[in-house]
């Protein structure tokens, strides 16, 4: 299948009972500010071109963010911070991301996450991460011809993506490299025709980091620019 068919198939997944219940519960309760919204309330697929050279791996959609709008990093503060930075460095067509029909285009970049449904307290269980892993394995396989850098946003994304890269035939160093902001791990080609891939660590764009200054806009821009340059963007 191509990436579009994969995304379409993903939106029908019901493999995690707790998350199926939560994504629907959030849509039922809603936040007062969003009471006129019809929530997406399904798995949120990755977003960006099928020939992306850089993949950004977050954690999971937010109950009233991606789970409401149906697009990753759309309609919440994490998305605001990330898309503003991508726009600043020339990788997004506009600085805001509010609705899946708002016209946002990503240039050479795709968003995805290791867990595609909103979890309670924004914390998926290890079992849910395992259950969702095959979706990311397939997505990376389809992106393999073009993707050159993967940016893991936060330790969860970092830990989730290493086994996915190993499943795709990449030699992941042992012991597994630790997450840090600015960490970079180069993974050799998976086969004779393959290209090397670099994994970068970046603090997550959650308000817990962006509002406290742990991740400043300049730090985020610098890291995105470095990873994009390495990807040939
Ligand atoms: Fe399916 Fe992933 Fe959602 Fe679980 S988290 S129901 S595996 S899409």
TrEMBL record:
Q: Name one Pfam family in it.
A: UDG
Write down the InterPro entries for this protein, in alphabetical order: UDG_Type-4/5 (IPR051536), UdgB-like (IPR044147), Uracil-DNA_glycosylase-like (IPR005122), Uracil-DNA_glycosylase-like_sf (IPR036895)
Which residue numbers delimit the Uracil-DNA glycosylase-like domain?
A: 45-224
Keyword Iron-sulfur listed? The answer is yes
Determine the domain of life of the protein's source.
Bacteria
Q: Which UniProt keywords apply?
A: 4Fe-4S, DNA damage, DNA repair, Hydrolase, Iron, Iron-sulfur, Metal-binding
Task: Identify the stretch annotated as signal peptide in this record.
Answer: none
Q: Does the keyword Cell membrane apply?
A: no
Q: Which family does it belong to?
A: Belongs to the uracil-DNA glycosylase (UDG) superfamily. Type 5 (UDGb) family.
Name the record gives this protein: Type-5 uracil-DNA glycosylase
Per the UniProt record, the source organism is Streptomyces smyrnaeus
């Amino acid at each position: 299948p191509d990436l579009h068919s994969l995304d379409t198939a993903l939106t029908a997944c019901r493999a995690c009972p707790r998350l199926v219940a939560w994504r629907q519960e959030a849509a039922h309760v809603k936040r007062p500010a969003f009471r006129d919204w019809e929530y997406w309330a399904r798995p949120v697929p990755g977003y960006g071109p099928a020939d992306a050279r850089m993949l950004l791996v977050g954690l999971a959609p937010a109950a009233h963010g991606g789970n409401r709008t149906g697009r990753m990093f759309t309609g919440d503060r994490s998305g605001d911070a990330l898309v503003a930075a991508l726009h600043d460095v020339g990788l997004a067509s506009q600085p805001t991301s509010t609705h899946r029909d708002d016209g946002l285009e990503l240039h050479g970049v795709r968003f995805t996450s290791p867990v595609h449904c909103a979890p309670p307290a924004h914390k998926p269980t290890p079992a849910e991460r395992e259950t969702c892993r095959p979706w990311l394995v397939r997505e990376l396989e389809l992106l393999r011809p073009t993707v050159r850098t993967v940016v893991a946003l936060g330790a969860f994304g970092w830990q989730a993506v290493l086994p996915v890269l190993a499943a795709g035939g990449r030699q992941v160093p042992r012991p597994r490299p630790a997450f840090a902001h600015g960490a970079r791990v180069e993974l050799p080609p998976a086969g004779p025709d393959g290209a090397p891939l670099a994994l970068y660590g970046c603090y997550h764009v959650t308000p817990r980091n962006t509002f406290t200054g742990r991740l400043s806009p300049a730090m985020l821009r610098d890291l995105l620019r470095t990873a994009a340059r390495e990807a040939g963007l």
